[in-house]
Amino acid sequence: xxxxxxxxxxxxxxYRKLQINHTRNKQQDHTALMDExxxxxxxxxxxxxxxxxxxxxxxxxxPLWEQSSQHQRIILNQLYWxxxxxxxxxxxxxxxxFNQTSxxxxxAQEDFRLICDTLDLESAQERSHINAFRxxxxxxxxxxxxxxxxxxxxxxxxxxxxxxxxxxxxxDLKIISLTPTY
Length: 182
Hints:
The chain is an all-alpha fold. The chain has helices at residues 12-27, 31-40, 43-46, 63-67, 70-107, 113-145.
């Protein structure tokens, strides 16, 4: 059987582009800053601020929005952020899973370490994002509802979604979609 995987060293231009990309990704990596910021995050310090432009708020432009107080509008704005990034966590988990699966398959191939290192860096960044999104979301949900509404327990691929059966707000995130499906 003939090996159909080509060596990157056979394409110096491609290999150089991958090196430049990896170097720039490391230089632009702000994971440590994000980790520091999330470790210092306190919802009480920013609970009266919009986190997004106003139009990125739950119920924006509806009669309910128009009747809401400024304080209620800020909460709706923050809840949009929480709901949105709670869904993004799923995409980040999938990215880590596929990065690691790809790196595992490629690592044994000649001169593919650079790609594997790039995938590892991205996976580390994704883990930092997940931690940030979940930390902020949990604080907001606990402060506003006394329980988690959008944030759900972490799980790996193939493990069933945990539903808190005692919660009057249990939500399966498969039902909530901030983007329409066609």
